[in-house]
Sequence to fold (669 residues):
Amino acid sequence: MAIKVITLNNPPVNALSFAYSAKLLEEVQAAESDPAVDTVVFTGANGLFSAGADVNDFATEPDPDAKNVRHVIAAVERGKKVYIAAIDGNCMGGGLELSLACDYRVATERSKLGLPEIKLGLLPGAGGTQRLPRLVGAQDALQMMLKGETVKAPDALKKGLIDAVVPSFGDDIAKSVMSAVTGDAKRRVSAKKVSLQGLPANAVPFVIAQAHKMCPPEENGGFAAHKLVDAVQAAFELPFERGLAREARLFEELVRSQPSLALRHIFFAERELSKIPNLPPAQASDVKKAGVVGGGTMGAGIAITFANAGIPVTVIEPNAEQIEKARQMVFGMFMYQVQKGRLTQEEAWKRGQSIVFTDDYSELADADVVIEAVFENMDVKKEVFKKLDAIVKPEGILASNTSTLDIDEMAAVTKRPEKFVGLHFFAPANIMKLLEIVHGKDTSPETLATSFKLGKALRKVAVLSGNAFGFIGNRMLFDYAREAVGLAEEGVPPYRIDAAMKNFGFAMGPFAMFDLSGIDVFWHIQQARPDMGAGRTKIVDRLYEQKRLGQKTGKGFYKYDPSVGKGREAIRDEDVEALFREVAAEAGIAQHADVADEEIVRRLTHALIDAGADLLEKKVALRPGDIDIVYIFGYGFPPHHGGPMWYGHETGYKDVYSNQAKEKELVHA
Ligand code: NAI
Fold:
């Protein structure tokens, strides 16, 4: 008897689009009607099994005759042949659901499997919620699907998700797979009952209730998660076919839901980021050696980011004490990763060794890129760039991590303004995903292309910004801060404003965030740019004078007690509320504390949306989606609201998306 190999081959990621599913269905039908074939092996081309459904298809109105992966899976389920999934590389979403419908799953060691639909506000809608619990038990299935986490092949074997792991498939995939599976009886997952992994059968309501408890509130990022649990409940309570029907109905509900639309918007916006309209084609270079000037908070974090990406980095720091502090910080960070089991001792050591601290600028002569992260002072920065320009090889890129200062003014002290760019990391630089790439008026296409390539190598989400005060994120933050402080000046206590924003989905309220960043940061900005200052009163000055600088001094907009939450827990401070009343009275601001939570959210989100619209108008930001990404990845805007601009569009406040087609260009503000 013959084995038929069906290779999923739909570059680049073998997406199981409607069109491709129709083709696969024909192949399955052909195998079924061929009496010579007794076994069908699915495998994937292009270095993976499949990344799953095509996200673009979700947005289209389904054609009643269109075929999708559910039809392929149904044909496999009904089929008379033995089906085997031979998995090499990523096997995600619909790809894994197809494998679950097979009789056997064999994977190579390097493979990763997962059902990440929840990340797009969806649930696995091609049988995953019914088959996975039957295969690995309810708890493991819920854990995998609710977190959308991927499982490596050896762990997948332990969970019972796959039947065998092989080092590789070699040249003869059919032979390799057949020798890995034992027995030839058909073993359809659908015929099993959901296992409770050691719990008695009457524990089902308990398991389901626990799963709901694991999910965020339905209205605050948990909409899809609760529906997913409902689908798994159906796997317990209904016959297989009816469970599938329930899953399909819940999936349809989610596809049309606001949170999923928002999350899919982010998914696509992220893929747009590096497409720069009107940018002449340019060759991106690899960064093989990097330099950082300044071994402070940011410099050390940036150095770790390079080390994590396998790029050796030299940090210039004149202050010996600071070098010691930075070394401790780097060491502590890698040790923490080892303790958490995320790094081996050996790897941590290797990464630590790839960061060199010195006060000798000449060590940077052969660096491909040097990022300046010294004090936020134009004169200090200019001195640094003059030195760097004289030392770093002519083709090396010079970059500044400044939060607010003018990139062009710095570039002007060098003889290579075309190789000058802003690379604005966010604190902590080794953790925060956002990177703003700031183009100056002379920055060349090659420098931008290399910066984007570097951003990718550093595993950052890189967004292009014009050279305007505060770039995209901080400019919006200033307007947000002004509105938040403005509300408090009108008599709404900071703790209430924070609670309303947390309820909206922000990880942290604005005042807790100001306390974390330091009130001094806002005070300094206010000195440099009074028009960007927070509030209409003297509140920031007063806090600054009273050394209420935030968490670091134990007092800011809140008070902190070292014995409560390690001194990081914000405690309401009525002294600050009294101070707000005092400065408001001086400025003649009327008090109305009875502002509803919805009004707080409305005022703060509208401040962000207005600022974003202004940045688009001035062409500092290229696309509304770029702004959404900045605010989600850099400032904790709730992803299920899609970012401020998406939210403005969805709630009918400002429709910046309808202007998307407007010609885009690079403009310097
Ligand atoms: P920091 O004060 O922690 O570190 C600055 C370091 O630069 C100090 O260690 C200092 O000794 C060193 N330094 C000063 N002059 C130098 C010189 N001529 N050559 C070499 N090293 C020199 O400051 P931080 O927070 O790391 O900020 C650095 C830059 O990053 C600033 O431009 C800041 O605006 C920007 N930034 C800061 C963020 C933050 O949250 N802290 C976030 C994003 C950007």
